[in-house]
Design a protein that fits this description.
About 10% of the residues lie in helices and about 45% in strands. With about 575 residues, it is mainly beta. The chain has 5 domains: about 180 residues, no CATH class; about 90 residues, Immunoglobulin-like; about 80 residues, no CATH class; about 120 residues, Sandwich (Immunoglobulin-like), CATH 2.60.40.10; about 100 residues, Immunoglobulin-like.
Length: about 575
């Protein structure tokens, strides 16, 4: 009985989704979900809704899609693959595949700098022929309940090996398929309004009123800019969206399913000191920035003004500028992380200091072997870091000692006493870059110890041609921490698996033989347990690389570092 009820609920849910996004090329008697998903995404449907759309050949929908040439991919493209020589009009689910270009991670236009795309939704409009920065979404078979995300290079390789398919054509939605004009605006004259790409947290500011054309049943994410000042008048969002006189939303975000031309207005009221609140984070008597959740969404501290009735939630633990804090209480004295003020004013979250994290990207291999050991790192983001001290210890020579004191803006140091070597018979040396954190009269502390091991020898060695391996040392084996690569050697993808005995701040990056960072894999807080990350190296040259792994427990316990050799063989 439970199984029948579940099936019924799933069928009801599917029918409701179809009602929300039902493009004209959807056919109930069609069985090709890969084509349906790709076309529905280009039409403007959400990922979940697109999973319910079935259709056949893209070419048969020429009223809505046009075939395009060239080698540059942009977000919104529908790509068709089949065996070489297959006629476009004869491609279907039995002898072809289709997928959707969801993102182009080009360096020319950074992600988040969104512009108007071809399909009536906002996207990064940064065309690129580089298959490693083109991100696609696809479903593989009938009955699929989720979609996959991978690079264009990966999906091409998979379908070529699996079915012998190659890319035969690309399509984009015609402008004529977008007959409806939807206008987003504020209830006052002028100001900003935000429009987002469905399924992501990215928004772009637009001048109000903002009209745009969309296709039938496409989906729009709109967002009110909560506090705005126009001509000296301050306006506060009144937690309402209206379509004409009808209230269609009661939060700052609004999801619109396009069925007609219409105007949607974010409702605002004049601001005064008697009807708004502000939230902010504090520790040791100074503002620490970072974020506070207001009305269910993360906001930067100090926040903008919110109308009375806004609910704020402090994070139980917080990392701001690589300093770890623990929630203590609100300025009201409340020890509950969530408050809903009933009086206007500024409300502060008080956090207790825990510890300082070391600077990111500490790399003692930057000078390359045969040269003096050079350490580089990124500048510590905390404004209260006043200096760095470089610590060194050399096995059988001396224990931990300070060998340099540097200004907080310095990000490299060369050890003129030792050179990096490639042999395990040389001296075992470790370094640590520690940041001095000072709030005058309140706090004086140093970042956690984070020793990194290398092999070296006294003085300068004559330079030699690069060999197959770089001089480095792997940390002793640990039952609590581990790092492995499989396959190794690899071509062109390897999976790195690492284990953490507790929640930690993890840094993992790939370096070449000259000690240059070529790819940052992980940089953030990771939960306890086993995790995996893939490195795709098709754009790299054959040879040895090494992966530096560093885990700093949030509990303040002893950190773990290791370096793993991996070999790319093409």
């Amino acid at each position: 009985m439970k199984t029948l009820s579940l099936v019924f609920l799933l069928l009801v849910a599917r029918n409701e989704l179809l009602a929300q996004c039902n493009p004209p090329f959807s056919h109930t008697n069609a069985t090709s979900i890969c084509f349906g998903f790709a076309l529905a995404k280009a039409w403007g449907c959400s990922d979940v809704d697109a999973l319910t759309i079935y259709t056949e050949n893209v070419a048969s929908h020429s009223a809505y899609f046009v075939e395009i040439g060239g080698s540059d991919y942009v977000e919104g493209d529908v790509v068709v693959m089949a065996s070489l020589g297959t006629g476009i009009n004869s491609i279907n689910r039995w002898n072809g595949h289709a997928f959707y270009v969801s993102e182009v991670r080009s360096s020319t236009v950074p992600d988040g700098k969104l512009t108007k795309g071809q399909t009536g939704i906002y996207r990064d409009d940064d065309p690129s022929p580089n298959e490693n920065v083109v991100i696609i979404k696809q479903v593989r078979n009938i009955g699929a309940t989720t979609w996959e995300t991978m690079t264009l290079s990966e999906v091409k390789s998979y379908w070529q090996q699996y079915a012998g398919y190659v890319i035969l054509a690309r399509y984009r939605l015609r402008e004529s398929a977008m007959p409806y004009t939807v206008t987003l605006q504020n209830s006052f004259q002028g100001g900003k309004i935000q429009v987002g790409k469905f399924g992501s947290g990215d928004y772009v500011d637009k001048e109000s009123p903002y009209p745009e054309k969309y296709s039938l049943n496409s989906q729009i994410k709109a967002k009110a800019v909560s506090n705005q000042t126009i001509g000296g008048n301050k306006w506060v969002f009144a937690n309402q969206w209206k379509k004409g006189e009808q209230i269609v939303g009661t939060t700052d975000s609004l999801l619109i399913y396009v069925t007609e031309s219409a105007a949607y207005a974010a409702q605002f009221s004049p601001a005064s000191a008697s009807n708004y609140v502000v939230f902010q984070n504090y520790s040791d008597g100074v503002h620490i920035g970072s974020i506070i959740k207001v009305n269910g969404e993360d906001k930067v501290s100090p926040t903008q003004q919110f109308p009375l009735g806004a609910t704020a939630q402090a994070y139980p633990s917080l990392q701001a500028n690589r300093v770890q804090y623990q929630f203590s209480q609100w300025s009201t004295g409340s020890t509950n992380t969530t408050i809903t003020p009933t009086s206007p004013g500024t409300y502060s979250v008080y956090y207790a200091f825990q510890y300082v994290l070391p600077p990111l990207g500490v790399n003692p291999f930057a000078g390359g072997y045969g040269n003096n050991i050079k350490i580089v790192w990124r500048q510590h983001p905390s404004p209260y870091v006043t200096e760095y001290k470089i610590w060194r210890q050399v096995k059988d020579v001396h224990g931990p000692m300070v060998v340099a004191t540097l200004a907080p803006t310095v990000t490299s140091w060369t050890d003129w006493s030792y050179a990096l070597t490639e042999g395990y018979s040389d001296k075992l040396i470790s370094y640590d870059v520690r940041a001095h954190f000072v709030i005058p009269g309140t706090r004086d502390d140093w970042s956690n110890a984070n020793w990194i091991w290398v092999y070296g020898t006294d003085g300068i060695m004559a330079k030699r041609a690069p060999g197959p391996e770089l001089a480095l040392v792997e940390a002793p084996a640990s039952n609590d921490y581990s790092l492995q690569a499989s396959p190794n050697p690899f071509n062109p993808v390897t999976t790195l698996t690492y284990s953490l005995k507790e929640e930690a701040y993890v840094e993992m990056a790939v370096y070449d033989l000259q000690g240059r960072a070529v790819h940052e894999l992980v940089g953030g807080i990771v939960s306890q347990g086993k995790h995996t990350v893939r490195w795709e190296a098709s754009a790299r040259s054959t040879g040895a690389y090494f992966v530096r792994f560093n885990a700093i427990p949030l509990s303040g316990g002893e950190s773990f570092s290791t370096v793993l050799r991996i070999f790319l063989v093409k």
